[in-house]
Amino acid sequence: MGNLTYEKAGVDIKGGDHWVETIKGIMKRRKSDPRVVGGIGGFSGLMRLDGDRLIAGCCDGVGTKVEIARAAGIYDGLGQDLVAMNVNDLVTGGAVPLFFLDYIACGALNEEMMSAVVTSVVEACEYCGCVLLGGETAEMPGVYGKESFDLAGFAVGTLKESEIIDGSKVKEGDVIIGLHSSGVHSNGYTLVRSALAEEIAHGLDEEGPVAGETLGQTLMKPTRLYVPQAIAAAKTGKVKAMAHITGSGLEDNINRVVPAPCVCKLSYDWPRPAVFDLIASKGVSEEEMRRVFNLGIGYVFIVSPEDEAEVVSVLESLGEKPRRVGRVVRA
């Protein structure tokens, strides 16, 4: 039985959830702004511009994946990770990405590393149809070690009020359609580093669980960008909710867009990338794996059963291999 957990690795998920509730309490004590649409807790925030025009915004980073990048010497996918962590969240509510801002904090400037990251950011933005509008690079010796760095990003998009997708129409019996992930994406790396500490110490240039790839290459596969798929599916008018599978795994992220008293019920019968089997073999239980990782499904759509074929067809036309991964049930 596995006994290695995210908490033992140093991340307190319950503490993080409590902090979110604390933030909500702080916000409730402030004077509300009538331009804000919806509340805290979604994948992005919404604000009214004028009429039915809204802007959506979100902020995220790539976490301790930067430590794997540093150990492997692989930086050219981190920019895509950073963009994906934001724009994938942004489009869940129906928004179309407009622009992106990046923030790089480091102990000492490393132009080669930062050039690789920013080039990747620009390429990812172009793929998603948005622009890198600006950013900040902060050199902070004494706060960060000489080789240490951190990445954060901010995405802004637009939509009409009539285009909001918020899960409010989700009901019992609805179908959950999933798109595959490239691997770990950008969440759970503190647990990855703990589980694979011995392998990391020996170097990441040896072959990992995927034939023809070093372990470093497998762990550094960039987070997939789901923007074209989300926009195309949303245009059908048949999508009730979307969820980006990030920290806290599939169930917690999907249930963010499923109104009570319903919850998601997943099959967990899809093929998993081999990297997850490697992590589990180091003493991480199935329960903990489900609580932390995407396990091969990076983005989901919730639709009525009668609309499943249409949405699947749209996704297939974009080269995807969508699959039903579960249903919405009454808790």
From TrEMBL:
<dbReference type="Pfam" id="PF00586">
    <property type="entry name" value="AIRS"/>
</dbReference>
<dbReference type="GO" id="GO:0004641">
    <property type="term" value="F:phosphoribosylformylglycinamidine cyclo-ligase activity"/>
</dbReference>
<keyword id="KW-0658">Purine biosynthesis</keyword>
<comment type="similarity">
    <text>Belongs to the AIR synthase family.</text>
</comment>
<protein>
    <recommendedName>
        <fullName>Phosphoribosylformylglycinamidine cyclo-ligase</fullName>
        <ecNumber>6.3.3.1</ecNumber>
    </recommendedName>
</protein>
<dbReference type="InterPro" id="IPR036676">
    <property type="entry name" value="PurM-like_C_sf"/>
</dbReference>
<dbReference type="GO" id="GO:0046084">
    <property type="term" value="P:adenine biosynthetic process"/>
</dbReference>
<dbReference type="GO" id="GO:0005524">
    <property type="term" value="F:ATP binding"/>
</dbReference>
<keyword id="KW-0547">Nucleotide-binding</keyword>
<keyword id="KW-0963">Cytoplasm</keyword>
<dbReference type="InterPro" id="IPR004733">
    <property type="entry name" value="PurM_cligase"/>
</dbReference>
<dbReference type="GO" id="GO:0004637">
    <property type="term" value="F:phosphoribosylamine-glycine ligase activity"/>
</dbReference>
<feature type="domain" description="PurM-like N-terminal">
    <location>
        <begin position="45"/>
        <end position="158"/>
    </location>
</feature>
<dbReference type="InterPro" id="IPR010918">
    <property type="entry name" value="PurM-like_C_dom"/>
</dbReference>
<dbReference type="GO" id="GO:0006189">
    <property type="term" value="P:'de novo' IMP biosynthetic process"/>
</dbReference>
<feature type="domain" description="PurM-like C-terminal">
    <location>
        <begin position="171"/>
        <end position="329"/>
    </location>
</feature>
<comment type="pathway">
    <text>Purine metabolism; IMP biosynthesis via de novo pathway; 5-amino-1-(5-phospho-D-ribosyl)imidazole from N(2)-formyl-N(1)-(5-phospho-D-ribosyl)glycinamide: step 2/2.</text>
</comment>
<dbReference type="GO" id="GO:0005829">
    <property type="term" value="C:cytosol"/>
</dbReference>
<keyword id="KW-0436">Ligase</keyword>
<dbReference type="InterPro" id="IPR036921">
    <property type="entry name" value="PurM-like_N_sf"/>
</dbReference>
<dbReference type="Pfam" id="PF02769">
    <property type="entry name" value="AIRS_C"/>
</dbReference>
<dbReference type="InterPro" id="IPR016188">
    <property type="entry name" value="PurM-like_N"/>
</dbReference>
<keyword id="KW-0067">ATP-binding</keyword>
